[in-house]
Automatic annotation (TrEMBL):
Domain of life of the organism encoding this protein: Bacteria
Luciferase-like domain sequence ranges: 10-290
Protein name: G6PDH family F420-dependent oxidoreductase
Gene Ontology MF: a single term: oxidoreductase activity, acting on paired donors, with incorporation or reduction of molecular oxygen
Keyword annotations of the record: Oxidoreductase
Species assigned in the record: Actinocorallia herbida
KW Oxidoreductase (keyword) present: yes
Length: 323
C-alpha cells in the first residue's frame, strides 16, 4: 500500500504547502495530494492558493514523491481543455509523477464564475464524463475538435505532452460515481471507508488504484487536537450532500455551529494515540484502499511529520492489503 499526505490548501499558504510537500518526501510518503479550491471551507482556515501553481513549485522542489489533485472539477470553473493542458504540463515538469484527480465539484468553488452550479447530481456526473472524454482526446496529441452536450473544443492541440498519458482518478461518493470511475477513469478516489463503493467500482470493471482519504488530527494531547480540528475542520462531519451544496465559507460556518468537540472526536482520530490512527486506516484497507492519503488537521504539521515517521509509517505499511 502507498501512503500519501494531503496538502490542505484551504489551511496553508503556497509557501507553506511547498515546504510541507518537501518535508513529506523526506518523511517517506509516497505521494502528496492537494485540494483544488477557490474558497476555504471556513474563513478561519484563511487560505485558498491556486493549486496548479503550488504543484508546479512542488514538482521543481522534489525528486521522488508522486503528485495528485484531490480533486479538480473540470466542468464549471475550468474548461476541460484547460485542465488537459495543465495536467500535461505538470506531468512533464514532474517527469511522470502526476495523477489527475477529478470530481463533480462543490458549489463553494464552482459558482464563482457566474455560470451557476448544476442542481442535479446526475447532470454534474454527465458533465464530468464528457469532460474526461475531452481531456483524453487532447492527451492523444494533434489538433482535436469536440462538440458535445456541454463542451466544445475547436482545433485544439497540446504541444507539450508527457511520454505517457496522465492517469485520471475519479472521485466517488456513491455507487453511480464509482461506476463512472470504472468506465472513464484509471483509478477511484473516495473519502470514506466504504466497501460497497469499492465493490461498485470493481463490479463495473474498475481495476485501477483505489485512493482513500483519511482525516485525523495529531497533537500531543487529545483535547488540543480536538479543539484544533473543530476550529478548522468541523465542516467535515456535515456529509457530502451538504459539502457539495453550500455556496460560501460563511454558509459552512453557519451550518457547523452545532458541531461539538465530541462530534469531531467521534468522526476521526484525534490526539497522539497511534492505535486509533492504525485502526481507522485498517478500516480503509479492509474496504479496498491501496493508496491511503492522510489529512492531518492538527495544529502543527512539523510535529506531525516526526510523529508519522516515528509512530505510523511502519505500522501502516504492515497492514494487510486487499486483493
Amino acid at each position: 500500500m502507498e501512503i500519501g499526505y494531503k496538502l490542505m490548501a484551504e489551511a496553508f499558504g503556497p509557501i507553506d504547502l511547498v515546504a510541507q510537500a518537501v518535508r513529506a518526501e523526506r518523511a517517506g510518503f509516497d505521494f502528496v495530494e492537494i485540494s483544488d479550491h477557490f474558497h476555504p471551507w471556513l474563513e478561519a482556515q484563511g487560505h485558498a492558493p491556486f493549486a496548479w501553481s503550488v504543484l508546479g513549485a512542488i514538482a521543481a522542489r522534489t525528486e521522488r514523491i508522486k503528485l495528485l489533485t484531490g480533486v479538480t472539477c473540470p466542468t464549471v470553473r475550468y474548461h476541460p481543455a484547460v485542465i488537459a493542458q495543465a495536467a500535461a504540463t505538470l506531468a512533464v515538469l514532474s517527469q511522470g509523477r502526476f495523477t489527475l484527480g477529478v470530481g463533480s465539484g462543490e458549489r463553494l468553488n464552482e459558482h464563482i464564475v457566474g455560470d451557476g452550479f448544476p442542481e442535479s447530481p446526475k447532470k454534474r456526473q454527465d458533465m464530468l464524463r464528457e469532460a474526461v472524454e475531452v481531456i483524453r482526446l487532447l492527451f492523444q496529441g494533434g489538433y482535436r475538435s469536440h462538440r458535445g452536450e456541454f463542451f466544445e473544443v475547436a482545433r485544439a492541440r497540446i504541444f507539450d505532452l508527457p511520454d505517457e498519458p496522465v492517469p485520471i482518478a475519479v472521485a466517488a461518493g456513491g455507487p453511480g460515481a464509482a461506476r463512472l470511475a470504472a468506465e472513464v477513469g484509471d483509478a477511484l478516489f473516495f473519502t470514506e471507508p466504504d466497501a460497497a463503493l469499492v465493490g461498485a467500482y470493481r463490479d463495473a470493471g474498475g481495476q485501477g488504484p483505489r485512493y482513500g482519504e483519511m482525516t485525523m488530527a495529531y497533537a500531543q494531547n487529545e483535547q488540543t487536537a480536538v479543539k484544533a480540528a473543530r476550529a478548522t475542520t468541523r465542516w467535515a462531519v456535515l456529509g457530502w450532500k451538504v459539502l457539495a451544496e453550500l455556496p460560501t465559507p460563511a454558509s459552512f460556518a453557519a451550518a457547523s455551529t452545532t458541531v461539538r468537540d465530541e462530534d469531531v472526536a467521534a468522526a476521526f482520530p484525534c490526539g497522539p494515540d497511534p492505535d486509533r490512527v492504525v485502526a481507522r486506516a485498517r478500516a480503509y484497507v479492509e474496504a479496498g484502499t491501496d493508496r491511503l492519503a492522510i489529512l492531518n488537521c492538527g495544529p502543527d504539521p512539523d510535529f506531525f511529520f516526526d510523529y508519522y515517521t516515528d509512530e505510523l509509517d511502519a505500522r501502516l505499511r504492515a497492514l494487510p492489503g486487499q486483493v
